[in-house]
Write a structure and sequence with these properties.
CATH architecture of one domain: Sandwich
CATH class of one domain: Mainly Beta
Strand content: 35-45%
Keywords: Signal
Strand order of the largest sheet: 4-5-10-9-7-8
Protein name: Exo-alpha-sialidase
Organism: Prevotella vespertina
InterPro entries: DUF6242_C, DUF6242_N, WD40/YVTN_repeat-like_dom_sf
CATH topology of one domain: Immunoglobulin-like
Largest sheet: 6 strands, mixed
Radius of gyration: 30 Å
Distance between the termini: 50 Å
Structural class: mainly beta
């Protein structure tokens, strides 16, 4: 019985302490209570978005489309008195005439503070509000003896989502000496490896730089640049039968030897893939120490022999599964072929077959671009290169693992960019495409891809 009494007393004391803490947290530095002066919800009504279009005669025109914004999430920072949306509204949204709904704790009274002076007006969900700049709201308790101010921001994208924004970086004259080159990226660095016909050299810049490139300390054989790959932010290269790896491009460690290998061609999170001098496709599950012949669903004569590129595509059905897309030109040099295979991060011993991708519709095939470059971008395989006329070929996207390749009006090369004797591209960790043509360097990103990345990171 005595123990029960002690337990009951302890619970009462704990309850009193919790109540005291809540009262303390509900007061600001001036002793004002927030318990009945809090915004608990903020939603928008239907908005109008200005859209661009073309008239029947081909002239530029605009119209306003309706946009349902009720599901747009607004975050409420009670500590700082801020209400805002992380996912910005579309470019062109009219936020000068906004209908909003505000819910408060215990039905507190809401007023809007004037943008000039201290004048207040009662908030009504039926009145239009100008949110072209942040607005201050005041929440009064039912007793009108305490209040709290909030600043509400309705964020709108300042750029069109379907525009590729390119920036011209400082050129690198050293790249002009290359007869061929290949760019790759790790977590925070961009590398360009190239050959002058006698040896392969490499240069590196920080991802947040791009104007200053440092020469790597080690050079390689003339064709080694073709084999540069990145696996889990580590560089790999095949140099005269030696498989080397590095984390910074300067210090290299030999991880294997195989004189039967011709070129490293692809990498997943758990595997390396290579072509042999005999024309077979092989795989390593131990970072290049040992290699095993892969299974193909078609003739090995259809494997690419030059202009080889790959893209590692994520798979929405399973987090540990990705798709390796391998492309390149055949021995004849006038046809581009595509192969694909699944790869498993947490099941590195899992076997899978390489599938040859066929498409009878010629108009949807990947052309045999010179300097063909394929990267993973916007959840698709993106192909770039130079066409038979010597101009940049259309950027082509495949969203079905290489079966169909289509152009997309949202994807464009930098304005005034011209093809040179060499071309390459890579994508960094912030979804910027780095494009190098001769000695010139550009960095660009599709606006909506950048927005999506920022939203995903904010949600982590």
């Amino acid at each position: 019985m005595r123990n029960k009494i002690y337990t009951l007393v302890g619970l009462v004391l704990a309850t009193l302490m919790m109540t005291s803490c809540l009262k303390d947290d509900d007061n600001d530095d001036n002793g004002s209570s927030f318990r009945d002066t809090a915004i608990t919800g903020f939603t928008l009504g239907q908005l109008k978005v200005k859209r661009d279009t073309l008239t029947k005669s081909g002239k530029d025109s605009t119209f306003y489309a309706k946009y349902e914004a009720k599901n747009l999430r607004f975050y409420i920072d009670q500590a700082q008195g801020l209400v805002y949306n992380v996912d910005s509204l579309p470019y062109g949204t009219d936020v000068a005439h906004v209908l909003a709904t505000i819910t408060t704790k215990n039905s507190g009274t809401v007023t809007i503070l004037s943008q000039q002076g201290d004048k207040q007006t009662y908030f009504s969900p039926n009145d239009s509000i100008d949110f072209t700049s942040p607005r201050s709201f005041r929440i009064y308790s039912n007793a009108r003896d305490t209040y709290r101010d909030y600043k509400i921001s309705v964020n709108v994208h300042k750029q069109k989502g379907n525009v590729f924004s390119w920036v011209s970086m400082q050129g690198n004259s050293n790249f002009g000496a290359f007869t061929a080159m290949k760019a790759v990226s790790t977590k925070d660095k961009i590398f360009v490896f190239g050959t002058d016909g006698t040896q392969t050299k490499g240069y590196v810049t920080a991802q947040n730089d791009g104007n200053h490139w440092a020469l790597l300390s080690q050079s390689f054989s003339a064709h080694a640049y073709q084999s540069v790959l990145v696996k889990e932010n580590k560089l790999f290269i095949l140099d005269s039968g030696r498989i080397l790896s590095s984390t910074d491009g300067n210090a290299w460690t030999q991880v294997g030897t195989n004189t039967n290998l011709k070129q490293l061609v692809a990498a997943s999170s758990s595997e390396l893939f290579a072509l042999t001098t005999a024309g077979s496709l092989v795989r390593s599950q131990d970072n290049g120490a040992t290699w095993n012949v892969e299974t193909l669903d078609d003739n090995a004569s259809l494997l690419p022999v030059s202009n080889i590129n790959y893209a590692l595509l994520s798979n929405n059905d399973a987090d540990d599964m990705s798709r390796v897309l391998l492309v390149g030109t055949t021995a004849s040099g006038n046809k581009t072929v595509t192969w694909t295979r699944l790869s498993y991060k947490n099941r590195p011993t899992a076997d899978d077959t390489w599938n040859y991708v066929e498409n009878a519709a010629t108009k949807f095939l990947l052309p045999a671009y010179r300097h063909l470059t394929v990267v993973n971008y916007d959840g698709a395989a993106l192909a770039m290169g130079v066409d038979n006329s010597g101009k940049f070929g259309s950027m082509l996207l495949s969203r079905d693992a290489g079966i169909v390749w289509n152009s997309d009006k949202d994807f464009s090369y930098p304005l005034n960019a011209q093809p040179a004797n060499t071309f390459t591209a890579t994508v960094d960790a912030d979804a910027y495409i780095w494009m190098i043509s001769g000695s010139k360097v550009w960095r660009g990103r599709l606006n909506r891809v950048g927005w999506k990345l920022n939203q995903e990171r904010a949600a982590e």
